[in-house]
Write a structure and sequence with these properties.
20% of the residues lie in helices and 32% in strands. It is α+β, with helices and mostly antiparallel strands. Strands 1, 2, 3, 4, 5, 6 and 7 form a 7-stranded mixed beta sheet that branches. The protein starts with 13 loop residues before the first strand and ends with a strand.
């Protein structure tokens, strides 16, 4: 039995989101893309998971374009050591560097055309993709280490600091 110590600082509470990436027929593999999001009471669900916001939805969409059998799971990190325990359960092969770029899009092109000289930002976030393949597997070279999430510039500015890699 293990005694769990709750976080004393409410800012330490996070959502742990995990995308289970399942390879295609021609490159079968399972991998996990864990990432943390800042806790938001409005996204909390009774089962401890979180509702997907626009970033989570766009990330899932970007991954499903390449790996359509992928799924999303989340939980709320409430205790010290909980993140490490969950990540330990996901490991089982190779950790690949994985990047997600938040790239601006304009649903209403007029917003862009009004001020084409305005500067916008694209933000790249670094993560680890926990792949369940051996380190010498040739299939590792067929796994894309990069996706682009298309988001409105305001959403990028709002969400960029709420997305964190895991330990």
């Amino acid at each position: 039995m293990k005694t769990l110590k709750a976080f004393t600082n409410p800012n330490d509470v996070k959502f742990l989101n995990v995308i289970t990436v399942r390879g295609n027929e021609w490159n079968r593999f399972t991998a996990f893309l864990p990432y943390k999001r800042d806790f938001d009471r409005g996204r909390y669900q009774v089962n401890g998971s979180c509702m997907l916001d626009q970033f989570d939805q766009e990330l899932m969409y970007a991954i499903e374009e390449v790996y359509p059998d992928s799924t999303f799971h989340s939980e709320t990190l409430l205790f010290e050591g909980q993140e490490e325990e969950r990540i330990k359960a996901l490991k089982g092969g190779v950790d690949l560097d994985f990047q997600v770029t938040l790239f601006p899009i304009f649903p209403n092109i007029e917003d862009y055309l009004k001020n084409p000289k305005k500067e916008y930002i694209a933000v790249t976030k670094d993560f680890k993709l926990l792949v369940h393949l051996g380190p010498t597997s040739e299939r590792l070279g067929l796994i894309s280490p990069y996706v682009v999430c298309n988001l409105e510039p305001e959403i990028i500015n709002e969400k960029k600091d709420t997305i964190h890699s895991v330990k």
